[in-house]
Amino acid sequence: MNLIRTLIEGAGQSRNPLFRLGYRAIKALGALRRFLVSARIRSQVITRTIYKDQQFQAETASREDRYPELFAECQKRLAPLLNPRILCFGCSTGEEVFTLARYLPQAEITGVDINPWCLKQCTRTNRNDRLRFLHRNSAEFARADGFDAIFCMAVFQRTDPPDQETDTLGNRVHARPVRSRGGDAGSKAAAGRPVFPGRE
Ligand SMILES: C[S@@+](CC[C@H](N)C(=O)[O-])C[C@H]1O[C@@H](n2cnc3c(N)ncnc32)[C@H](O)[C@@H]1O
């Protein structure tokens, strides 16, 4: 299998135009096969076609408990609140939201995504009425405000968001005093200001 792969990749670098054409045809067939076989891939392509200027990245991969340290820290910081309100921006198929709901069962969590297929998977899986899932362009999300924490994980990886996007997101953080454990991020979060790690 590896040999075949190496030969195909080699054809892509070949001086012979027929080999290069063959290489491109094989790649195109592979992409077509993935599009036809996988509903997830199809949704990524369709979302990119419809929302191309708004989509920060097409990739929708996610998994349960993907950021355990961050979730545990969030659990500690939000523990004093009766019903913390959390936004998961770019929630994909909901694993982040469902995980956070286990760390913070008292939280109200809003998952937002641009990919309608992902949101359908979230709604299908969800059995918890403290969780809701919204499209990023929905009127309900436009009105949503007063979050105690915003997760925006693996969303701004491929395309830098315009400042306006991060400002609008950040402004939805409510300035409820959350007990801070110190540190730069802690004090900014406590002051109700957005924290974008690595972008300070
Ligand atoms: C790689 S997944 C990350 C999922 C989850 N946050 C995690 O870290 O496991 C990125 C998600 O961001 C979504 N996304 C991309 N651009 C977006 C936008 N402008 N608004 C909302 N969601 C967006 C994609 O559809 C995708 O589901």
Description:
This protein has 200 residues and is an alpha/beta fold. It folds into two domains: 2-37, no CATH class; 68-190, Vaccinia Virus protein VP39 (Rossmann fold), CATH 3.40.50. 48% of the residues lie in helices and 10% in strands. The chain contains nine helices and four strands. It has helices spanning 2-13, 17-37, 39-51, 68-78, 95-103, 116-125, 139-143, 163-170, 183-190; strands spanning 85-89, 108-113, 131-135, 149-151. It has a four-stranded parallel beta sheet with strand order 3-2-1-4, with helices on one face. Helix 5 links the parallel strand 1 (85-89) and strand 2. S-adenosylmethionine (SAM) binds next to strand 2.
What percent of residues are in strands?
Answer: 5-15%
List the helices and strands in order.
Answer: HHHHEHEHEHEHH
Mean pLDDT: 85
Give the overall form: elongated
Please provide the count of β strands.
4
Helical fraction: 40-55%
Assign the CATH class of the largest domain: Alpha Beta
The CATH homologous superfamily of the largest domain is named Vaccinia Virus protein VP39
Uncertain ranges: 177-200
Bound small molecules, deduplicated: S-adenosylmethionine
Which key terms come to mind for this protein?
200 residues; elongated; 2 domains; 48% helix; alpha/beta; Rossmann fold; disordered C terminus; 9 helices; binds S-adenosylmethionine; four-stranded parallel beta sheet
Brief sketch in words of this structure:
This protein is an alpha/beta fold. The chain is built from 9 helices and 4 strands.
